[in-house]
Amino acid sequence: MRDSAEARTIELLLRGIGTGFLALASVSALAALHRIIRVRRVPALGIAVVVFTAALATTRRSLPDTVLLGVGLLLVLPFLAPRRPDQRWRVLACIPGSAVLAFAAPAGEGGLELVVLVAIPVLGGLVATFDQAHAPPSLAAVGMAAATGAAFLALPDTQNIASMAGIAVVIGAGALVLPRLALGASVYPWMGLLIWIAAADGSARPAAVVGTIGALAILVIEPVLRVLKHRVRGLLDQPGSVSVTIRTLMFAGAQGGVAVLSARLAGTRRSTWLALVIVAGLWLLVAAGLAALRDRESG
User: pTM score, two decimals?
Assistant: First the structure.
């Protein structure tokens, strides 16, 4: 029985990876038309992840219609909101979709409905702010791919996250080599679907939800530090002797490492409180590392 479940998980993951290449080809074709549509960078990476994940899930009927509605609202409303550097209007535009997804979240211990309602706009806004300060290439897309992959390691039920992780990893890798592809407002539907899947498939072990959120790490800590230090430029986007390529690879390694640690050390715990302590410790280490990086480069 267990071997059958593992085989099914591997099948879903491989199907997600294959679908990810189709998604990447689709957004790459769209980006190739940038001269015609007069858009310098196409904010479609998150759209590709959620649309193709939803398409796979629809064939298995594994996502409720309410979830598809909530993600659809997150696909549309933030794009219609006024564009501001502080993301305030887009965050507000996320509330209807977040409310729908919170309504569809499983009720139970840990207040998962409230987590879904608050986490999507808040975390989405922070990641969108990070994306504005560090692109191209879209480091935020790489980080979101790492967090989605980490959720696959943390959640006890992998029916939905397996396909999404496969797609996200391919999209994240594509973001490294295709600078005309951006995350932008498409981070909100990606965040919405990720948080809902974490809440639904991790309801039996709420620590898995904590581990998934903890996997966002640098993406949400860096914008907060930047505000506290009154900086406009990103802490990872400073001139220096390190090339953009090396800096990007260093970020991918650091974010991926923290994401895996959060998933395995915190997401697999039985105690939610212990998971929170572990994630808090990881985030403090990340914050200290980012502060040290900023001080070294400013000096």
Answer: 0.91
